[in-house]
Design brief:
The protein has about 200 residues and is of the alpha/beta class. It is about 35% helix and about 20% strand. The protein has helices at about 1-10, 30-35, 55-60, 75-85, 145-160, 165-185, and strands at about 15-20, 40-45, 90-95, 100-110, 115-120, 140-145, 190-195. The strands form two sheets. The protein has a five-stranded parallel beta sheet, sandwiched between helices. Helix 5 packs antiparallel against helix 6 (about 165-185).
Length: about 200
């Protein structure tokens, strides 16, 4: 965290955008929230607000792989980051995990927010249109967590949500496939961090 805060302090004046990325279960949401909590004039914008609605996923036969790159409004997310970069107030959607859907206009970045921390899986994915994001970040930080540690964390996550063993296995297969994609096809980050295992 100290290294990240030091890099943020060097970014200079004006609106700056920091990307915190990693595989599912890597701890990116926790790190991003801690970073925002420790800084004045900072706000968090999760990529998850751009999940496609389950009705669209079902119509396209993608419900079973929700969380994969093709299950997001990637072009809309790139447009949001461009708006954030330009400064001023920006309203954005937020994903509600309890309802399992994105809520339009539920988040706001105010004109006075100097630092916007964006977190998500595919912030440096080398696929169109995701790769357009790489040139928009003022700083990118990737959490590099080994697959076996991700497996352990994700298993605990889904078991903790009361899922059946069959549901846990289905979620795990999907999440780990996305994790391998993030690790294999992400462009280089400014800073790559390997967090300590969670006990």
């Amino acid at each position: 965290m100290e290294e990240i805060l030091d890099l943020v302090a060097r970014l200079g004046p004006g609106r700056r955008i920091v990307a915190i990325l990693g595989a599912p279960g890597s701890g990116k949401s926790t790190l991003a929230a801690q970073l925002v909590a420790g800084l004045d004039e900072a706000v968090l914008v999760p990529m998850d607000g751009f999940h496609l609605d389950n009705r669209l996923l079902e119509a396209d036969g993608l419900r079973g792989c929700k969380g994969a790159p093709e299950t997001f409004d990637a072009a809309g997310f790139v447009a949001l980051v461009r708006r954030l970069k330009a400064g001023g107030e920006v309203v954005h959607p937020v994903f509600d995990r309890g309802l399992d859907l994105a809520i339009a206009g539920a988040g706001r970045v105010e004109a006075g927010h100097r630092l916007v921390v964006v977190e998500g899986n595919y912030l440096l994915l080398d696929r169109a249109p995701w790769r357009e994001l790489a040139g928009l970040w003022d700083l990118s930080v990737m959490l590099d967590v080994p697959i076996e540690e991700l497996r352990r964390r994700l298993t605990a996550r889904w078991q903790g949500l009361g899922r059946s063993p069959a549901e846990v296995m289905a979620h795990l297969e999907n999440d780990l496939g996305n994790a391998e994609l993030v690790l294999r096809e992400s462009l280089p980050a400014d800073l790559r961090v390997r967090p300590a295992p969670i006990s």
